[in-house]
Amino acid sequence: MVRRVAVVGAGVSGLAATKWCLEEGLEPICFEQSEDVGGLWRYTDQAEEGRASIYRTVFTNSCKEMMCYSDFPFPDDHPNYMHNARVQHYICKYAEHFDLRRHIQFKTLVTKVKKRPDFSVTGQWEVVTQRDGKEETAVFDAVMVCSGHHVYPNLPLADFPGIQKFKGCYFHSREYKEPEKFRGKKVLVVGLGNSGCDIAVELSTVASQVYLSSRSGSWVMSRVWDNGYPWDMLVITRFRTWLGNILPRALSDWLYVRGMNRFFKHENFGLMPLNRTSRKEPVFNDDLPSRIACGVVVMKPNVKEFRETSVLFQDGTVQDDVDAVVFATGYSYSYPFMEDDSIIKSRDNQVTLYKGILPPQLEKPTMAVIGLVQSLGPIIPTVDLQCRWAVKVFQEKKKLKGENLKQPLFFLSSVPRRYGSSTTLQTDYIAYMDELASAIGVKPNVLKLLLTDPWLALEVIFGPCSPYQFRLMGPGKWNGARKAILTQWDRTLQ
To answer: Is-contact 30 37, C-beta < 8 A?
Structure first.
């Protein structure tokens, strides 16, 4: 019987894990190596070893109604998209509201997690921690890994011939904090993800010229959509998901490309993805197209070779007098505290986890990896529901008998092929949330709502799939969920 649970990390995932353990009567101890909660959202002026790092001007890509914890909305007066400081404040308030801090051991590093000798019978883990130079070992019935995947930078210098002889400075975007030191310089940013685009746009306000190199292009979306409403409240709906699933593939792809090009034609800006029908997560940036149009950001293809002061690109063009290079080349998945790293297999960004949560080869399902699933949807509601599901599994309230934990497709039976072979952590947001919610009895019953509360049912079907939907019924029902759904549009205008 699971009682004591070790939670690794006190970011948004670790706090959700701690809260749901407490809700179900378990005894969590959360280990956080820094001095406060927040994880990724806790900004520091310098990147810290073993912690995620963000730049000073990071804003959310999901709006407040879509990205909140399912029973803790953001304050009404907050803007739809928030600076990292506001998100950090919200996370702290969440921890205080549910009295989570007393279950967290700060400045405590988890150095080793390993199976107990009798694991096949008990499912127990030995967790070794370090604080103030002192080492402690404790036994836990279950472990929830909430350490995130934006910690260990992926810097593939071997893919960039000549980088060692480049005389300018180069570094991973993890080290970037603010633009002032690049005033008047020529800067190359490698990588067309959210970080690369944000940094390129910000640098363009002070640098003499910014070049943005992309290997395969990307769709670029604005946070603001029709009539000024947040993109995700219009796009992430049950009706749109249902429509996308029933339409013929060719028609669905055509509509998708047409929708992505609705504000500007990507190929005119050098941004068109090589695989234009892939549903890989797009870039969210309201300013990039205008910065390209103004010439302060210049799109370039992949780098072929670095020289002492110049860069040769794949199309044969050469850019001279480059002063600095920022590699926005993403992160690697790593769990250095795992004694047996094959438990969470990590190979070329492929992680084998049942439902995106459970390592499938364990004799006992007493480890959960939270927060690795990526979708066109907000992370906080995702990890919140993952934790609810995992705790039910720990308590054997969600039976896994007869389920194939070793199914080859990493986590889901519902991973659509349209996400492509290179994005094995990517899935459809609503399909994934509904799959977890169904398993623990909290998926909204739309037919029942149509009969008993038709106004609410219409909002659930055609309105945004906000996190409150998963607190309408079943275990963990929240009495404020109905009101939150029916008033969510009003709060976006405040």
So the answer is: no
